[in-house]
Specification:
The chain is mainly β. It has strands at 3-6, 9-12, 17-23, 30-38, 45-51, 56-58, 66-71, 76-81, 90-98, 103-105, 109-114.
């Protein structure tokens, strides 16, 4: 399984970015996919997840601003990030959990929000 992220970059506070995570294999091989982030000096934290059934879960800090979605045909998961804040600055990692409970991670994409 390979997860390839794209879409990170530099944006001003209040701006938007959309992250993409393209997975090899079938999206139905995964019980859930999601996004985590890690800021310098901090632990990796959950941002948002989406299950194979379409249920979503968000960290309180991003509720109402971020939206996770998926395209089954493209085997891709997206994270639409609106109203970005400087505290959203981090490396964002795509995660997938297989039906065998194996965790897979992407290489990470940098998101920097300037004030």
């Amino acid at each position: 399984v390979q997860l390839v992220e794209s879409g990170g970059g530099l944006v001003q506070a209040g701006g938007s970015l959309r992250l993409s995570c393209a997975a090899s294999g079938s999206i139905f091989s995964f019980t859930a996919m999601g996004w985590y982030r890690q800021a310098p000096g901090k632990q990796r934290e959950l941002v948002a997840t989406i299950t194979s059934g379409g249920s979503t879960n968000y960290a309180d800090s991003v509720k109402g601003r971020f939206t996770i979605s998926r395209d089954n045909a493209k085997i891709t998961v997206y994270l639409q990030m609106n109203s970005l804040k400087p505290e959203d600055t981090a490396v964002y990692y795509c995660n997938a959990i297989s039906v065998f409970a194996t965790n897979y991670w992407g290489q990470g994409t940098q998101v920097t929000v300037s004030s």
